[in-house]
C-alpha cells in the first residue's frame, strides 16, 4: 500500500484519497477478486445507515423513527449504485458522509456552534 501516493496523486477534478486507500486495502486483502470490493461497499453502506439512524434519533428523540430512517436508507433503490458498483466506493467514502456521522456523536460545544466548518475543524483537531 502506498499511502503517500493516495494523498498526492489525483485527478484535478476529483480528490478522493480515502477511496484510493480503501481500494489499496481491498486489493491487498483480496487481490482483484470483486468480493472484497463489494464487501467494503456493503460495510460502508451499513455504517452510513447507522449514522443516519443516529442523526434521526438526535433530531426526533424517538428510536422507532430513527430505526425507520436507517432502514429506509439501507433499502432505498437510490443507494443501489453505491453498494453494487466497486467504482462507486467514492460515494461511500465521501467526506460529507463521514462528517455527518461524526457530527452525530460530537460534543455539546461543537453541536451548538453557529459555524459548522469551524465545528468540524475543531472536532478533527481533537
Fill in the keyword field for this structure:
126 residues, mainly alpha, 9 helices, elongated
Written overview of the protein:
This protein has 126 residues and is mostly helical. It folds into two domains: 79 residues, no CATH class; 32 residues, no CATH class. Helices cover 72% and strands 0% of the residues. Helix 3 packs antiparallel against helix 4 and helix 3 packs across helix 7.
The overall pLDDT average reads 74
Strand percentage = under 5%
Structural class: mainly alpha
Largest sheet: none
Order of helices and strands: HHHHHHHHH
Radius of gyration computed on alpha carbons? 16 Å
Tally of extended strands? 0
Distance between the termini: 27 Å
Low-confidence stretches: 95-111, 115-126
Instruction: Kindly state the percentage of residues in helix.
Output: over 70%
Q: What characteristic shape results from the CA principal axes?
A: elongated
Supply the number of helical segments: 9
| Total separate domains | 2
What's the helix and strand layout?
Elements: H1 3-8, H2 17-30, H3 34-60, H4 63-75, H5 80-84, H6 89-92, H7 95-103, H8 108-111, H9 116-124
Brief digest:
The chain has 126 residues and is mainly alpha-helical.
Amino acid at each position: 500500500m502506498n499511502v503517500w501516493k493516495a494523498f498526492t496523486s489525483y485527478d484535478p477534478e476529483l480528490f478522493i484519497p480515502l477511496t484510493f486507500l480503501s481500494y489499496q486495502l481491498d486489493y491487498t486483502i483480496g487481490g482483484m477478486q470483486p468480493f472484497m470490493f463489494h464487501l467494503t461497499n456493503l460495510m460502508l453502506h451499513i455504517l452510513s445507515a447507522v449514522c443516519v439512524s443516529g442523526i434521526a434519533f438526535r433530531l426526533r428523540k424517538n428510536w422507532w423513527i430513527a430505526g425507520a430512517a436507517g432502514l429506509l436508507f439501507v433499502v432505498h433503490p437510490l443507494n443501489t449504485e453505491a453498494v453494487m458498483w466497486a467504482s462507486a466506493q467514492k460515494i461511500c467514502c465521501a467526506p460529507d458522509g463521514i462528517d455527518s456521522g461524526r457530527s452525530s456523536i460530537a460534543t455539546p460545544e461543537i453541536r451548538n456552534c453557529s459555524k459548522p466548518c469551524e465545528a468540524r475543524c475543531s472536532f478533527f483537531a481533537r
